[in-house]
Design brief:
With 971 residues, this protein is an alpha+beta fold. Among the domains are: 26-119, Immunoglobulin-like, CATH 2.60.40.3470; 206-415, no CATH class; 419-576; 885-971, no CATH class. Keywords: Signal. Residues 117-180 are annotated as: Disordered.
């Protein structure tokens, strides 16, 4: 018992010394306090997993803990704190009148300093108008402040909002007490810009009011009353946003207590400024607008907050960093809630500009902002000043800042902040991207089989950032094969398409057109990449590239180097040159953009009075470079430019391009070059080489056969048209026709072409060569009217050579249904002649009678007359006369011949009635010549008396000449 009592006594005595250890068993918040020169301090030691949120409401500070845990309050309130109470889940502190607070979060502790009240500056003497406030220059100085024996807190000055920093060292109780540097700010007290003479020492308190946002805009807004000309700045620190106004004005926030976004907002008054602290989630941002009544602050989605402002550009010159900003206000020193140090904040009197990308240097950190400028100084001598152009950051004492000029990548990242993105391609150094890829590969390898697909997508995205398009595409294909859940995921489809484009496989990048990917600038950019890769110089792609160029420039180097030449060349060819010249001037040493420069110089050369020499020199320089595709394109463009300026003829240009066929093989680019060579050859009269080149192309690109066949037909038609003007040697024409008979199209145009070609062949001095050519045309021509036309010509040629059987065989071989009437008539007439010569007169006359046309009737009469079948000939001539001889009026010679033949046939058959009708009706209509005399002889009546003897003598004389005359009437 005695031993147990001793142990219990030791435990009780050791309790205070072992407070943190005991708290480990029963979690609670330990409060420790201390007094220092100019401020009192309260330190909240937080158990693991506990967070603290201080909220100030006037002179009352409430610290709430999550999850709720007991609070062990210290017995004595520190300096500037009137009372402290602790309860489960929160602590409450009552501030002394006028006391200000400063908060820090250090290694699991919340540190709150309660600063001594500052006396307000006295107003100036009465005057007609107060002077304008001078610009303020803030410098940071450090003075040693005695720390408590329990806690020494060195205030860090190099924290960065975008990268975590190691927490500053905290002295333990066993370490000797000492001093820790605490940042203080020396500033000049200035009168309020709106203060009137004799005004009270403090401004009148005004109320903040909730403000509705426009319809369709998500978020909350509140208006704070400030004078005209008061500037503002806004940025994030930790889990809260700070909005700094360069006018001291107590704002009553009571009207916002029911607003879910502004309920926890607090106002801190500084000697010359007002600071609004507003808790924000990582998904929220701020948007500031100016009105006549003051400033309106809106909580909006972070994408909307980051997307609307123009970047404040840094410009380093003479060791001073200039931040070019419109309507600069004042520079205000505020306490950093994360570190307790000083922040130098530059305000702007109007919204619209921000610092989109944070930067760190050895002497300061430039924070990312939604408006204005926020600088976290590291050097004691650093100062921020207001100028007419914005703000300057100086090292002081004539020293230059220890930093280089802003890199183009940093400027590009700033310019691209307002573009909407879909994928994560961070513009990091290659070493960091390689480490990112290695970490992603390790995570994918360690993941379970069913959870590996998402990790592989991350691997592919890391590969794309390094320009590894083919590898990323293979990785995504493997991920989609192993897990069907991501196969139809729009992001996976988009990344697969991007990987295909990076690998140069535009045909496999169709996934980028998925409508589920609509709505971002980044997807529009990649769709333009696909369009530009499939259509060189596409105007629609050029417009997208010109609008989204800053986004492309913000990509990692490997991706940017792959895409930038394509974008620049497309912009140059697509009609957007004004957007390209600044980029080329900025990247004048980038040889990958030389081809785009040459395109722009060519456009200038084609203008009236332009000089082609700079463009030709640029093309020749690129043609001698290391990039094979650029060499091929530059060489072709140089030939075309020389052709356009008259330095080369069409034949010379075709020869020059023909030598470039092997510079780039196997895709649409080579096919286009072949077509261009064929066009130039045909233009110079080299139809056979042009057609031969295109026929070879048909064999290499069978999928392009329809388009190539159309070009072949067009060139062949041009060749025949040129033959009509300047006929080539007969053997050349024969060879041309033999090689390209299949190019004659069906339809009226094809029939006309076939007829002209057949006429040309039959008109040659080589008739025996024409028949084989026509036979080949019949064989190669497509079935239908074209083959029937060639068959009719072949039949006629064979008939003229005395081969009626061959003529009939040609007609049978080329027969086709539903032929045009003129072609059908021509073939029927040839058939009738061949059949008649072969002895098949009935078939010939039957075909002619079925045809029922005037030429058919005339040929039928001729054939029957030649066969001396006078009754049938008389019927055929009656039909022919009915078709060709008018019933009344005088007759011409051809019509008179027809009636004379009819009269002869009637005389041969003894048809007195027909002769009498012809004598009585038509004798007077005939022209007065020998035809009329013969007609009267044939139609005269028989001799019946002595009075008819003179007439009989005259008729006898005419009868002797009749056989010769009749021969002239027969074809």
């Amino acid at each position: 018992m005695r031993a147990a009592a001793a142990v219990l006594a030791l435990a009780v005595l050791a309790g205070p010394a072992c407070g943190p250890a005991a708290a480990a068993d029963t979690p609670s918040v330990i409060l420790r306090t201390g007094d220092h020169s100019g401020f009192g301090r309260v330190v909240f030691d937080l158990p693991r997993g506990t967070t603290a949120e201080p909220v100030q409401d006037g002179d009352r500070l409430v610290v709430r803990f999550t999850p709720p845990v007991p609070v062990s309050a210290a017995g004595r309130a520190p300096r500037n704190v009137q009372a402290m109470t602790g309860a489960s889940g929160q602590a409450e502190l009552i501030l002394a009148p006028g006391a200000q607070i400063r908060r820090m979060r250090l290694d699991g502790r919340l540190v709150v300093d309660f600063l001594d009240p500052t006396s307000a500056p006295r107003p100036p003497a009465a005057a007609a108008k107060p002077p304008a406030p001078p610009r303020r220059t803030h410098t940071v100085a450090r003075t040693p402040v005695q720390s408590s024996a329990k806690l020494r807190v060195p205030i860090p000055m190099d924290r960065h909002t975008d990268e975590p920093a190691a927490p500053p060292p905290v002295a333990t109780a066993s370490e000797p007490a000492g001093t820790a540097p605490v940042a203080t700010v020396q500033q000049t007290a200035l009168p309020e810009s709106g203060a009137a003479p004799g005004a009270p020492s403090g401004p009148v308190q005004l109320a903040a009011t909730p403000t509705p946002l426009p319809a369709g805009v998500a978020g909350h807004a509140a208006s704070l009353p400030f004078d005209t000309g008061v500037g503002a700045a806004a940025f994030r620190r930790g889990d809260a946003a700070l909005v700094v106004f360069d006018q001291r004005r107590p704002i009553d926030m009571a009207a916002l207590r029911g607003d879910p976004a502004f309920a926890a907002a607090t106002i801190q008054l500084l000697p010359a400024a007002t600071v609004l602290r507003l808790p924000l989630t990582p998904q929220e941002g701020l948007s500031l607008t100016r009105s006549a009544a003051g400033w309106t602050i809106a909580t909006v989605p972070v994408a909307a907050a980051d997307g609307g402002a123009r970047p404040i550009r840094p410009d380093l010159a003479d060791g001073v960093l200039r931040l070019v900003a419109e309507a600069p206000g004042q520079v205000v020193s505020v306490s950093d809630p994360d570190t307790g140090g000083a922040l130098l904040v530059g305000t702007q009197r109007q919204p619209g500009q921000s610092v989109p990308v944070a930067r760190r240097t050895p002497e300061f950190a430039l924070l990312r902002t939604w408006q204005g400028v926020a600088v976290e100084p590291v050097s004691d001598a650093l100062s921020v000043r207001v100028t007419a152009q914005g703000f300057t950051i100086e090292a002081g004492a004539g020293r230059a800042l220890a930093l280089a000029a802003p890199a183009p990548d940093a400027v590009a990242s700033a310019d691209a902040q307002h573009f909407s993105r879909r994928f994560a391609f961070p513009a990091q150094p290659t070493e960091m991207l390689l480490r990112r890829l290695q970490a992603a590969v390790t995570a994918a390898a360690a993941a379970p089989a069913q959870a590996r697909a998402g990790k592989r997508v991350a691997v592919a995205q890391a590969m794309l950032a390094l320009g590894m398009g083919a590898e990323a595409q293979a990785t995504l294909t493997m991920a989609a094969t192993d897990d069907a859940r991501i196969a139809d995921n729009p992001d996976t489809l988009g990344l697969s398409a991007i990987a295909a484009l990076m690998a140069g496989r535009a045909g496999e990048a169709g996934g980028i057109t998925d409508p589920r990917l609509d709505g971002t600038d980044e997807v529009a950019l990649w769709r333009a990449v696909r369009t530009a890769m499939t259509r060189e110089g596409a105007a629609d792609a050029a417009a997208v590239f010109a609008a989204n160029l800053p986004l492309l420039l913000s990509y990692p180097a490997a991706m940017r180097n792959r895409l930038l030449p394509l974008a620049a060349e497309t912009i140059a060819l697509g009609g957007e040159p004004a957007m390209l010249w600044p980029l080329l001037a900025q990247r004048r040493d980038d040889t990958s953009l030389d081809l785009a420069r040459a395109f722009l110089l060519e456009a200038e050369a084609q203008a009236p009075g332009g000089d082609p020499k700079p463009a030709l020199d640029a093309y020749d320089r690129v043609a001698g470079g290391p990039d094979r595709l650029a060499r091929a394109r530059a060489a072709v463009r140089a030939v075309e430019l020389r052709l356009a300026t008259g330095a080369l003829t069409s034949a010379q240009a075709a020869d020059a391009l023909d030598k470039l066929l092997f510079s780039w093989r196997g895709d649409d680019r080579e096919l286009a070059l072949r077509q261009r060579i064929a066009e130039l050859r045909a233009r110079d009269g080299g139809f056979r080489p042009a057609l031969a080149l295109l026929r070879e192309s048909e064999q290499i690109w069978p999928e392009q056969r329809p388009a190539l066949h159309a070009r072949l037909a067009a060139i062949f038609a041009d060749a025949l048209a040129a033959d009509a003007k300047t006929p080539p040697p007969p053997l050349d024409l024969v060879a041309l026709v033999e090689e390209n008979a299949d190019l004659i199209a069906d339809g009226e145009a094809g029939q006309a072409l076939a007829a002209r070609l057949a006429d040309r062949l039959t008109a040659l001095d080589l008739p025996k060569r024409a028949v084989p050519v026509l036979e080949k045309l019949v064989t190669q021509a497509p079935a239908g009217a074209v083959r029937a036309a060639f068959g009719g010509r072949l039949a006629k040629a064979r008939l003229e050579e005395g081969d009626p059987a061959g003529a009939l065989a040609a007609l049978t071989r080329s027969a086709a249904p539903d032929l045009p009437a003129p072609l059908q008539e021509s073939r029927t007439l040839t058939f009738a002649r061949a059949a008649a010569v072969s002895g098949d007169l009935p078939s010939a006359t039957a075909a002619l009678a079925a045809l029922g046309t005037t030429p058919a009737a005339a040929l039928r009469a001729d054939l029957l007359e030649a066969a001396k079948d006078w009754p049938a000939a008389l019927a055929a001539l009656r039909e022919l006369a009915a078709r060709t001889v008018p019933p009344e009026g005088p007759l011409n010679e051809a019509q008179a011949r027809t009636l004379l033949r009819l009269a002869a046939a009637a005389a041969q058959t003894g048809d007195e009635a027909t002769l009498a009708r012809l004598r009585e009706h038509d004798t007077a209509r005939l022209p007065d010549d020998k035809l009329a005399e013969m007609f009267r002889l044939l139609t005269a009546g028989p001799v019946q008396g002595v009075a008819d003897l003179p007439r009989a003598a005259q008729e006898t004389k005419l009868a002797r000449a009749l056989p010769a005359a009749l021969k002239t009437l027969t074809p």
